[in-house]
């Protein structure tokens, strides 16, 4: 039975997951997920964002029925994924980051093998052409580059015409051309009505692809909304501008931050790459230009941007590594 287009294809409520026993904790269990809420709809791309160790992979594995849960509720296409039968699995496509591909198989032979498991698979040739697999069709999988494996894993996930597609870091290892192809395909699949759930570390990917975003931190959902909603709900765009410029390394940013731009944050994020963040006014720009002129500095690039999803993410999940 097809789920109507505006129905959720995945709902997660108050998900709790304990793992262990952990040797470093005297053999105690550790609470990895402590209240994850997440809803994905058909015809939408829903992104799950979180820092390293926030619980993204564990959440997806529970949602796919690969792990049991210790509390809360998960419904995937209306069923409990952990207890579901093979029929539910045939309606779900999964592209894991590592690919899970057999190393000695060859790409097209593998896809033809996977296609034989379904009653009405997508034509292998169509996916091979679309994802640029033809040029390495007969190369053993162990010899493929990371990006080639990634495209093959995507083809394998799509072959059974899934209704729900899980993508773990879909652009990992892809060159700009492949990334473009994969992004166009994801948008088309969304328009065909698939419910697409992706995890990513790349805020730019989420900003480009996601209709709806969930941010998890330390095993809990801490924010959700469209990218625009998240940006506007966590700070005024007028107050949060970012100016970046490139110039010679080692400029005296302390003098700049304690002088003409004293109410703004100024940093040299990488050698020769500077950022000025805060409620920037036209006067600040004039003061900065005057500071450059006094020192005969001509930046090789100057860029002004509003608050981004990355700012929201860093505000919510902290700016330091935990
Ligand atoms: N079986 C386990 N035993 C102990 N700890 C675990 C187990 N599985 C996961 N964890 C811990 O749970 C936390 C969440 O892990 P998870 O892999 O879900 O995070 P993630 O958000 O996918 O991270 P990343 O972005 O690095 O892939 C981590 O601190 C991890 O070490």
Automatic annotation (TrEMBL):
Upper lineage: Bacteria, Bacillati, Actinomycetota, Actinomycetes, Micrococcales
- State the superkingdom: Bacteria
A Pfam family that this protein carries is: ABC_tran
**Identification of the protein by name:** ABC transporter ATP-binding protein
A GO term for molecular function: ATP binding
Extract the InterPro entries matched here: AAA+_ATPase, ABC_transporter-like_ATP-bd, ABC_transporter-like_CS, ABC_transporter_ATP-binding, P-loop_NTPase
Question: What SMART domains does this protein map onto?
Answer: AAA
Q: Does the keyword Nucleotide-binding apply?
A: yes
Q: Which organism is it from?
A: Arthrobacter jinronghuae
